[in-house]
Each structure stands twice: as structure tokens, then as C-alpha cells.
Amino acid sequence: MQKNAVDILTSYVDALHPIIYINHFDFKVIDDAISKVSETAKIVEFNNALGFVDFKSKHPMHEVDLETFLKQVMDYGFDHETFVVLKDVHNELKNPKIIALLKKISEDNVYREDFHETIFIISEVLVIPDELQDFITIFDVPLPNIQEIRDIIEDYARDLNIDITVEDVDEIALSCKGLNEFQIQQILNLAYRDGGHIKADDKKLIISEKQQLVKKAGMLEIVNFKEKVEDIGGLYNLKRWLSKKASIFKDLDKAIKFGVDVPKGILIVGMPGCGKSLTAKATASLFEIPLVRLDVGRLLGKYVGESENNMRRTLSLAEAISPCVLWIDELEKAFAGVGQSLGGNEVTTRLFGQFLTWMQEKESTVFIVATANNIAKMPPEFMRRGRFDELFFVDLPDADERRNILRIHLEKRGKWNSEIDTIALTKKTDGYSGVDLESVVKNAIEEAFINEKQEITTADLLTSVKRTKSISVTLKEKIKDLRDDISKYDFMEANGMKDKEW
Ligand code: ATP
Fold it and tell me: Which ligand 1 atom minimizes the distance to the CA of 404?
């Protein structure tokens, strides 16, 4: 355990905090810290599974219940400074006799000068009886900082005689931010067993460990995806912009040391079905970092302050697992009604303020991808300079982009052939969105299968085009309104022209 954790525990003991509740699962790490708090204290341990055990050797001494154990050790503090370590006893904290005994020891510790006995409760489950509230101090084991993570990696490599470059240590250390010592050790073990070495590309293992963390906390959703930037047809400006930023995220440590400002995020507004969600996923794959989705509706709680607390915890979880892409889908709905005098929702307005402040002040490596179909109801603060690095507008694909999208979807299904006349197809698909074009391809392939054809022809696709209604027909008014709204702000065109790279 890191030195700062031991220092905090020591300060609690010195300040006579009678019960220190350590909400943690890794007993070994905690034992280590407790034994470093004092070299002279007598340490006695009760383990829910084994009863009275020897703290050092972990040998069972007597099989007793907690009540008997506490009665046996409650006066030790008169002779010796004593640490009473209780493991996995959370279920016992509902028992009035146990509560009374813990209270007695606590009171003596606080009020009697000739008595020094501190209780450490270690459990993954937090149970705080009302009667003990004033005596319990919760100790959240701090996560290792970057230097401590480096030390863990270097110690590991040294112990096993593994060669690892300084650059690889730095890169892995940065990715491990937000993980505890146990999780970092696990990753190092996995990486070493997998390839006999530890290298920067072991970052994949780190991503999966972080996914576990997010799943357990339950406030953010980990998005699993296969999409890559090559799956996006068109949107050349956006792809070029992202691939530049990717070179920063792929070498984050080097970039930060060089003085590069870590990109904050982008807002992508545009027509439905034109690749906004696809871009959020492709960004995470391009940057080689996890994708987590924030659903603001999920944060709303029943009690006063609960929603704000959820937002605070969620944003710190995102920071803890960073670098990551934080995706907020339908941003216009997440903060709908903010700032409107009538009918505006107070809680949502407060959450919005909290989110905006966080965005403004954040120095972490959380990259925000916010997507929206509409900006009319969105708080204009989001569109102000400096909030996002860039605002992108995704319009309906032009002719060249449509060709590109059709080809991607045909290739994806193994049905692309050079005989297909994409120029003829693009002429007939003006106003079609990405998802419309995907439907054209899907339907043509399905039809060909039903008719037992092996290949797809231009004629099959043209027939499918005729049968597929485009978004421009179904959402004509909405599209016009969106283009008008966008023109009032400084949006960059996501579409743009193709060049050598894209
Ligand atoms: P919405 O606003 O309705 O959520 P969206 O813009 O997020 O829409 P996506 O979910 O990204 O749209 O697109 C839906 C599907 O349409 C994608 O999974 C993809 O198969 C196809 N598609 C859309 N745009 C493109 C594109 N530019 N290139 C390739 N496929 C696309």
C-alpha cells in the first residue's frame, strides 16, 4: 500500500478515531498498512470465518464468536496500545450486543487517558449502525498516483527480472490510473503470463479491467463495439480531425510531457442516421481507450441532493478510469428545459451547471463526445467557444460520401464487386442518410438471397433504392430547421472533401 494511505491511517489513530472502517476487499494490502501504522502496537485479529487468528501468521487460535472475542480483548488497551482488526463482520453490526461492546471500547479510547485501543473493521460491505455513527471513520483507500503506479510496475519487473523500457512504464502507468494496487498487479501478472514481457500494447488488458470497475459501480455504461474509423463513410473533415487527436491519445504520456493540451471533446450535431453514434464508437477505437456512456436520466434520484451526488460520483468515476471517451448521446434531451423560466426543471438545471463547471475545469484525460439531433432546445452555453474543442455539423452525405457509404456496407457483407455502378446509384440517392443507404444494401442482399442469386447487381440496388424512403422525405421540415439553427453558431462541416488519407 502507498505511503500516503499509511500516513492517513496513522493520523486517524493518533487523533483517537476509535473505529476505522476500511471499505476494501484486499485483506493483504490492508494488513500491510495496519502493521506499518505502529511498530509497537499489539495487533489482534478476528476473522468471521476462523474466529481469533494470529495477525502475523494467520493461524487460527480459538474458534470463538465475535462477542466472546470482543469481551476477551476489550481490556487489552489498558496494558498495551492495541489494534483490534475485525474482518468481514458487517453482518454482526446489526447485533445490539456487538454494538454495545464496540461502543464501550470506543468510549474508553476517546475518554480514558490510560486506554489505547483502536478498532479496524475491514469489509467490502459498508454497514454503519446509528449508535456507532459518531465513532466510525470511513477510510477510502486512496488510489495510487502516477509515481506510485510507476513504482509498482518497476518493482514487479525487477522482482521477475523483466526488461521494460522507461517509455513503456510511463505509458502503462498512465493507463492504469484509477486502478488500485491489486488490480494493477493482476494486469501485470496477466500481461507477463500472456507474452513473457510487459509492453505498452498491454493497454488492452487495462481497458478490460477498467470495464469491470465501471460495471460494478453501475452508473456509467460500458459500450462494447466493433466499429472502426474505416467503417465511417464520408465525414472526411471529422475523421481527419479525430485522427490527428488520436496521435495524442496513443502517446498520451509523451504528449503531455511535450506540453500538448489534452483534447477535451467534441459536440456532433446532425441529421439522424448519419453516423454520429458510429463516430463516438470509432473515436474510442481510434484513440485505443474505453467508451463509456453517460445517461443523465439515470442519475436522477428521489431525494434532495441525490442527483447532484450521483453526477459528482459519476464524473469522478469517469476521471478515475480515464483516459476514456465519455459519450453523451442525445445531449439535447439530457439537459432539456435548462434555463427556461417556465417549466424548466430545477434539478436538471443544477446538474447542467455542475456538468458545465466540470467540463470547464477538467484537466483529466476524459474525452467527451456529445451527440445531438437538434440544438433548438439545447442550452446555448454548450456552443460557446472553449467548452468543446470543436463543434461538428453532420449533414446528409453528398454524392462522393454516398458512394463511399454504399461500398462500405457492400464490402462488410462480402458483396462488393467492381461491376457495381456507384455513380448511377449516387444519382438516385440524393437526400439519403447513412442508415438509409445501409437499408438499401441490406434489402438488396436479402432479396438476392431469397431469389437464389449469388451476386448483387446495380439493378438490384436501384430496385432497392426505389423501395427505400429517404430521411429527406420523412423528416423534411426537421432537416430544414436544423440547418437554420446550425447556421447561427460556429459549426465546422463534418463532411468535407476526401483527400489522400481519407
Ligand atoms: P441518431 O441521431 O438517429 O442516433 P446517428 O447519426 O447516431 O443517428 P448512427 O447510429 O451512427 O446514426 O447510424 C446508424 C447506422 O447507419 C450505423 O450503424 C451505420 O451502419 C449506418 N451509417 C450511418 N452513417 C454512416 C456513415 N457515414 N458511414 C457508414 N455507415 C453509416
Answer: 28
If you average pLDDT over each of 17-31, 71-85, 370-384, which comes out highest? Answer: 71-85
Nearest CA to ligand 1 atom 8: 273
Rounded to two decimals, the pTM is 0.72
Interacting residues of 413 by C-beta distance below 8 A, sequence separation 6+ = 441, 442, 445
- Which one has a higher pLDDT value, 343 or 156? 156
pLDDT digits (tens, 9 = 90+) for 223-240: 888 899 999 999 999 999
Give how far Cα 18 sits from Cα of 37, 45, 136, 276, Å.
15, 16, 7, 54
> Which residues lie across from 328 on neighbouring strands?
370
Bridge partners of residue 137, in order along the sequence: 20
Q: Is 278 near ligand 1, meaning CB less than 6 Å away?
A: yes
The order of strands in the sheet holding 390-394 is: 221-222, 291-293, 324-328, 366-372, 265-270, 390-394, 492-493
Long-range CB contacts for residues 357-364, cutoff 8 Å, separation at least 24:
358/315, 359/264, 359/265, 359/387, 360/386, 360/387, 362/264, 362/319, 363/262, 364/262, 364/318, 364/319, 364/322
Could you please report the per-residue DSSP string of 13-69?
HHTT-SEEEEE-S-HHHHHHHHHHH-SS-EEEEEETTTEEE-TTT--EEE---HHHH
Q: What is the dihedral of CA 481, 482, 487, 492, to 10 degrees?
A: -170
**Count of CB atoms within 10 A of residue 183's CB?**
18
Mutational test site, ligand 1, from 227, 277, 413, max ligand atoms within 8 Å of CB = 277
Query: Alpha-carbon distance 197 to 192, whole Å?
Result: 5
- Pocket test of ligand 1: the residue of 274, 408, 470 to mutate, having most ligand atoms within 8 Å of its CB, is 274
Q: How far apart are CA 191 and CA 415, in angstroms?
A: 39
What is the average pLDDT across 488-499? 86
For 322-331, the pLDDT digits (tens) are 889 999 999 9
